Amino acid sequence: MVKSLMKTSALALIAGLAGSAASAQVNLTIATASPGSVVYLTTAHMATVTAERGIANLQVAEGQTLTNTVLDVAEGRMDMSEAPMLLPFLLSRGMGPYSGNADNGAELASHLRALFPYNAGGFNIYTMATSGVTTWDDLRGRTVFNGAPRGAALTNARQAIQLAAGLQDGPDYTGLQANWGQLSTMLLDGSADAYVFSTIHPSERVILMESAGEVNVISVPRETFESEAFQRIFQMPGNIPIIIDWADTGYDEHVHLLGSDDGVLRAMGTAFATVVNENMDYQLAYDLTTAHIETLDRFRASSPQAAHAGHGIVDQTLSGFCGNNLLRYHPGAVAAWEDHGYDIPDCAEPE
After folding, report:
1. Interior CA angle at 29 toward 26 and 31, to 5°?
2. pLDDT below 50 — which residues of the chain?
3. Counting C-beta atoms within 10 Å of the first and last residue's C-beta, which end of the chain has fewer, N or C?
4. Which fold has domain 121-269?
């Protein structure tokens, strides 16, 4: 059990409020995704509440390739980054985008610590109703946008398609990759027949597509989702189950759910965490995490997306920790969660 700093944190906050409320004492750099995503919303909210509480001024770098910025945090060149949980695993193995770190990847990954988890939604098919794509099998022979080059999202999208339909990028369909900033244009210009990416609902990208006509959102069929083969994917770091009642997604009658026999949208989801270097000051990690926990209701009310992103869920399975995922919480974060009544799994606590 990590010792409690609740009293000292509260005293520090009171003292700060008694002085200059806007004078944060620490400047921190943090990397995040493009505006409009729940990843960006998470960072923006953190920047706001930490400044309000006088904890830190977050200098936000948006629209970043998180593959690179997670490495920056591990190497101490950046203070914080939003991170798909797949990335620390790949770094630890020197795999994929970190093949150049085969010799030191394990050591670098060991420097990463989490403050709090959330998710970036599930991988489904998004396509115009006129495309003729109504099932995962229909992706065969098509051009499919499946993420940014070299990113974790690309790896996950390829996994999702292979699990749902047994199709591989290249032999079975033409994968199209582009930077996330280009996606808004691509959703409307017909660059791809279908799009497979992770999103929280209601998604601004789906709503953008709707401006061009009727949109289909294709679920992983229940039988496929519940199969032994598909469930095994949740043992891989960064993959979590996403199950959403379609009635709660908030779309109008021009966005249609396909591939579901019970009105439930199912998908392989992407677990995220806000990560820092292990050398971050204990009290600072505690205060940053406390600011997150104590403003969860405010964050969830800030956007229709935010309510469905799993903030405040520290369950081992639903948050993506443990198992083959070697990422652990920062000791200060563990103390903050436990001081607020949450139970952090032992396997996710620092050794």
Report:
1. 150
2. 1-23
3. C
4. D-Maltodextrin-Binding Protein; domain 2 (3.40.190)
**Each residue of 275-290: pLDDT tens digit?**
999 999 999 999 999 9
Average predicted confidence (pLDDT) for the chain:
91
Rounded-to-integer distance, Cα 65 and Cα 52, Å:
28
94: phi then psi, degrees, rounded to nearest 5: 60, 40
Q: Give the pLDDT of residue 122.
A: 94
Contact 178, 93 (CB under 8 A): no
Which sign, positive or negative, has the C-alpha torsion 290, 60, 249, 322? negative
d(CA 91, CA 306) in angstroms, rounded, equals 29
CB count within 10 Å of CB 43 equals 24
Q: What is the pLDDT of residue 12?
A: 36
DSSP line for 41-64? HHHHHHHHHHHHTTS-EEEEE-S-
Cβ(121)–Cβ(309) below 8 Å: yes
What's the CATH code, domain 6-119+272-348? Answer: 3.40.190.10
Tokens of 172: 């079975």
Q: Are 216 and 134 in contact (CB under 8 A)?
A: yes
